[in-house]
Amino acid sequence: MPMPSPSPSAPAAQAAPAPVTAVTPHLFVPTRERPVRAKVRQLCAATQVLPHRHAWAQMAISTTGVIRLSVPRGTYIVPPSRALWIPPGVEHAVTMVEDADLRTLYFYQPPGRCGPDVAPDEEEPWRQCRVLQVSELLRALVREMPGVADDAAPLSPAVLRREALLSALILEEMRNAHAVRLGVDLPRDKRLRHLCEAVLADPTRHDTLAGWARDSGASARTVARLFRQELGSTFSQWRQQVILAKAVALAAGRRPINQIAAELGYDSPSAFSAMVRRAVGMPPARFLGVRQD
After folding, report:
1. What are the pLDDT digits (tens) for 148-201?
2. Which residue range or ranges hold the HTH araC/xylS-type domain (predicted)?
3. How far apart (Å, rounded) are the C-alpha atoms in residues 235 and 228?
4. pTM for the complete prediction?
5. What number of CA atoms fall less than 13 Å from residue 250's CA on the CB side?
6. What pairs with residue 92 in β-bridges?
7. What does the alpha-carbon distance between residue 15 and residue 17 come to, in Å, rounded to a whole number?
8. What is the dihedral of CA 200, 205, 208, 210, to 10 degrees?
9. Residue 216: which of 229, 235, 241 has the closest Cα?
10. For the residues of 217-275, what is the DSSP string, one character each?
């Protein structure tokens, strides 16, 4: 049934962008000779890149705008100050929380190896998704990487030589980047998955597990049991990770801590600060990279 046209005095609601596919990854395949390849894509808010996977490793970074990257058992909020490492073969989908300048780096991985050219005994942490703190140098290096597809005119020897130097520095910066626990685990159980997605959409709608359980049609006791079985944590512990991820997204908009605390349902900035200190072991101004007032 067609919808009525808006009246001239009322602005039309903007439709969400149609989902898009991963664009031509086969034209940016990393090799031993070119171990790091870069792809640049400008995408508007609410755009969804459909689930896909690669045979190589990947790092997603937005130099402007916040993105949400989802894997089968978790989701990650990635602002410009962070990047997400995705190991080979992991299915992932991307949603633009804001208009974003999405930079994707693809990494050659020798057979059986995983990581940014790390020693074999240092590979294990890189065999799972990792949120990395992005230094100013790493962000600048990513911006400078040529994002030229293989079907374009061949790069000159000088450009290839510069790409090789940039690649070596990117790998060095990644090896030294601080990993941040910002992922939010997601369950397989459909009932619990629906509840978790509702919390991700609006974590302040209810203060207690009982309120969320009522929305899902299950008892609080059942939901608490499912959290322990599916995610190995309590609801409060899991929701705290959601709050931290949301705080990171809000901080990317340069909001001060008192505004972030209020929007996330805290009565005072000090209560919010205490939670952040307990969770990540550092003051929120340092964790979020924002001003205190």
Report:
1. 999 999 999 999 999 999 999 999 999 999 998 778 999 998 889 999 999 998
2. 190-290
3. 8
4. 0.80
5. 19
6. 52
7. 6
8. -90
9. 235
10. TS-HHHHHHHHHHHHSS-HHHHHHHHHHHHHHHHHTTT--HHHHHHHTT-SSHHHHHHH
